[in-house]
Amino acid sequence: MVILKEEIEIWMDTELQNSTEQDQPGQLAIINGRLRMEEPTGNGAWPIIAPGKGVQLRHEGELIGKPTVLENAEDVDIEVVHKPSISEFDLVVSQDQMQVVLKTRFAAGTKYRIEDTEYVRELTVNVDAVGRIPPKPIDSSLVVQELDALGIKAPIFYDRIHAACTSLESQEVVICEGREMKPSVDGKVEIVCELTRRLEAQNDDARVNYLDRGKFNAVSAGDVLAHWYPPIPGEPGQDVYGNIIEVTPPASSRLRVGKGVKLIRNGTTAVAEVTGLPSYDYGVLRVNPQLVIDRDVSLVTGNVEFKGDVTILGSVTESLTVKAGGSVEVLDSVYHARVLSGSDVIIHKKLIGGTVIAGAQQPGLAKAEKLLQRAIRGLESLHMICSQLKKQPRLSVSDLKLRGDGYLVKLVLETKFPEITKTLAEVHELFSERGLQFCDEECLEFVATVRAQVQRFLGPAPLDMKTLEELFQAITDLQDLTNKLDDLLDSPADITVYYGQNAKMEATGDITVSGPLLYDCDVVAGGSITVSGECRSGSYIAGSAICAHAVGSKGLGVISLIVGENGTIGADTFYPGVKLRIGSVQTVIEQECHNQKFHVQEGKLVSSAFRRGGVRC
Questions:
Q1: Which of 27, 268, 373, 507 is the most buried (most CB within 10 A)?
Q2: DSSP 3-state assignment of 25?
Q3: Burial of 494 (0-12, 13-18, 19+ CB in 10 A)
Q4: What is the DSSP string of 409-472?
């Protein structure tokens, strides 16, 4: 029994082993690029083949694309699909049809081989990359043919096409362009001057000056105000298909000018003919030489400063200043204010307090010029006397050798000519800092020079002169400065006022008071002073003549009248106490006299008949 059992087990093991060997599945492998197959045994499964990426499988000539049971390896053909290189182009016409763009695309391909595998039941055939396939140039003639097919009429850039097709680099190149339309340029007026009526005040310090609201804007004669650029017609364009692109005609603006403006350079440049306020209204450029203030000059308006003429329909109130490069006309009155004008000043009613300057725009210049002329005549006499004294044998000159001639100059100046020192001290005071607030830089420089020359004759300064030649040179320098001051005041400007009281008036021309009274004023005129009514207390200096209805008063203040050496002083009535001076000759009226005109003849003061009531100089 035991032997039988062992034999049965041996038999069963043998049978089981034989059964296992008979049911082996089939297998596939790729060796050296070739497909190999082991068929199944027994009931073993048949192998399956499937194409991978880059592979085409054909089974008995038919393309298979999914896993397929393979019976015979010889029935399958394997084809490697290489990735081809790319050499292609496209033509793109821009949206505005003004350009044709050639877009080229180049890309290298890839060469593959079948990947070897071990035996497996289910085989997916894959490939390995083994090389690069370079792209080929594009045939340029194909691009040109397509351009013709698109109907392109514009010039073609053949060199760009060739370069793009043979570069083997992807790019976008403009190979055809239409002709751009050149747009028209409209005519244009360019205003180059400031049109703001009033320019904002520039204050350097933190303090607020409520009277300074800024200067009124003005241009000077000859200033360029505007340019006109004429219209320029455009040129039509053409797109790549040959279609014409029309151009819009330009707008034709014109530079129109009115009063005070002149066109030059064939009407393309506008310049100011006069000094004044520019305006550009309704397309017309004008310059108004007159600034009109239609109310009082007060805290509401602030100070008024303008390069041209100023007309004030009201009054100028206390502490305000009106400064004009041209004339000033006040239809009402001026009260304790300043009026500074480069030309004539007319005040239709009263002038009470304050200062009115015509022609110089700087207080004191006109008076200083008269005072300097008087002082120079005295200094010339001073030099002459000092020269004569040095020649006198009885004069001890030992001190002069030790101290210099300045000692003699100061001695004679104090004893013989004290009025020179007083006159020059008055000039020095006129040019003090508080009186120079309206001076420009050129004027300030001139005034500083005058002050320095005048200072040489004040206080102990004459002692610094070593010789009389220094005195002569100082007189010569002072005369040159006086001549320059005379040139500065050369343009005659007049002042006309109805009534004056406690005021200061200076004019490079004439001063006329048309009303009943001029009282306690400081008046200086480069020409004449004419008073229709009474001229009471005060100081009155004129270059040529002073005439009035009545001069002085009975017991009311002191009055002095001064004119140049060739001038005249006349009145219907002179009251006692009136001081007269014509050149270097002076006198005081002792008794009331009538219808007298005084002048200098042969160094003496003489009188003649004055036309009564005529008040004519």
A1: 507
A2: coil
A3: buried
A4: HHHHHHHT-HHHHHHHHHHHHHTSGGG-TT--HHHHHHHHHHHHHHHTTSTTGGGG--SHHHHH
Average pLDDT, the chain: 86
Residue with tokens 């300057």, as numbered in its chain: 357
Token code pair at residue 424: 């020059």
In angstroms, the CA 419 to CA 581 distance is: 13
* pLDDT number for residue 595: 93
Give the DSSP per-residue string, 56-116: EEEETTEEE-S-EE-S-GGGEEEEE--B--EEEEEEEE-TTSSEEEEEEEEE-EEEEEEPP
Q: Is 378 helix (H, G, I), strand (E, B) or coil?
A: helix
> Measured between alpha carbons, how far is residue 578 from residues 421, 555, 574, 581 in Å?
23, 11, 7, 10
Which helix or strand (DSSP H or E) is residue 380 part of?
helix 365-391
Q: Cα angle vertex 242, ends 240, 244, to 5°?
A: 110
What are the helix (H) ranges across 219-277?
A: none
Range among 29-33, 86-90, 306-310, 436-440 rated most confident: 86-90
Q: Do the bridges between strand 109-114 and strand 127-133 make them parallel or antiparallel, or are there none, so unpaired?
A: antiparallel
Give exposure, 335-363, as e/b (b: 16+ Cβ within 10 Å).
bbbbbbbbbbbbbeebbbbbbbbbbbbbb
Rounded distance between C-alpha atoms, residue 540 and residue 189, angstroms: 55
Quote the tokens at residue 411.
């001695």
Mean pLDDT, rounded, for 159-171: 94
> Could you tell me the CA-to-CA distances from 371 to 179, 425, 430, 565 in Å, in that order?
81, 10, 10, 13
What is the DSSP secondary structure assignment for residue 591, as one 8-state letter?
Answer: S
Instruction: Give the angle 132-127-32 at the CA atoms, nearest 5°.
Output: 105
Can you say how many angstroms the Cα of residue 573 is from the centroid of all Cα atoms in its chain? Answer: 61
Would strands 559-563 and 538-542 be described as parallel, antiparallel, or unpaired? parallel
Q: Which amino acid is at 285?
A: L
